[in-house]
């Protein structure tokens, strides 16, 4: 591959334009890239340094692989580069098959070399040696939002955490859109929202980002890029690219946070596969909202907050881009939801008293509970298919000696209160 990278710099004060990266006539070559002003933010690593950091890209350090190539965890310190704080990093190796990979790598370097924000993942440096193209990011301890929301082995995200993530991601987008030359992110989705140890959300993967139109012009893309299920209808139909496309994608992610369902899920019945098509009409009606809320929340969410988020998602998903809110407005609506405290009493642990006049009643429950426990066990044995058919919820949950379930809370609430009163 030609190691010359063409980038145009318009003036020393303005940001390097992303639109010019793809212009093969632009005069800047790779050596200019390393000496340009944003390069002072970035460390340039050699391939052997990166091998050292990642134990030769060992499988034990493997974090995952997306469209660009594999990602490995590594560690840098000031022995590697004077002035670098010792810290874990994520090293992404770009698979350079085809021109697009190279352009996306360059977009990432040029954009993240210039833009810094608490809700954008930090690019620490890059490597560009022969045909090798790698990126070195701050390490995000909790990986991406997709894994937390949809993988079965992870514990469920609480309501507060979901809102915190939504606020963080919204601030990241608002920052990009608020730039003097607005940046359209184009690939807003749960797998591109990374989470640090405290669940602070940061946007990653800027390879598809584009500078927004200036003045009244709108971009028309010849190639529609992005991810199915998140792309705005007008962008798919006409290729018109505006910041409002990102707002639509944000609406889809809000819906995923509410429902715990994927934007596209081929494993579901036909009419439920596209999340927006299935859920949108529920968002308008407060009374129907319960039907689509993520069962993994176990009812532990602010009703008022859920209503506000649903109304906001509905607005973001407007068919007409002009009816969608700006990301600044989205942040203004979402932030106060973090303060709402109208959550139901949390999951509790109920320990049945060993003796007393409630024994008979409780034993009665226990027997029924044991039966039900058997059912739960059978359910696990018979596998996922029954759970998908709603098997679990068709059978009311009865008392057992110890429970930590909100469904149980609803069923047993009254008995709990009377048991407490009688026990006084
Ligand atoms: N900075 C980082 N810190 C920790 N893990 C990361 C970091 N960057 C990426 N990862 C993880 O590496 C894996 C691959 O990420 P990558 O962004 O390449 O692909 P993806 O987002 O899964 O798919 P796509 O190609 O659609 O973006 C994911 O599991 C992601 O969570
Ligand atoms: Mg990604």
List the helices and strands and how they pair.
Blueprint: H1 30-35, E1 43-44, H2 47-53, E2 62-65, E3 70-76, E4 87-93, H3 99-114, E5 123-129, E6 132-138, H4 145-150, H5 159-178, E7 183-184, E8 193-195, E9 201-203, E10 210-211, E11 219-220, H6 233-238, E12 240-241, H7 243-259, H8 275-284, H9 303-316, H10 327-334, H11 359-382, H12 384-388, H13 391-394, H14 406-423
Parallel strand pairs: 1-5
Antiparallel strand pairs: 2-3, 3-4, 4-6, 5-6, 7-10, 8-9, 11-12
Helix pairs in contact: 5-7, 5-10, 7-9
Domain Protein kinase: 57-338
Keywords: ATP-binding, Cell membrane, Kinase, Membrane, Nucleotide-binding, Plant defense, Serine/threonine-protein kinase, Transferase
Protein name: non-specific serine/threonine protein kinase
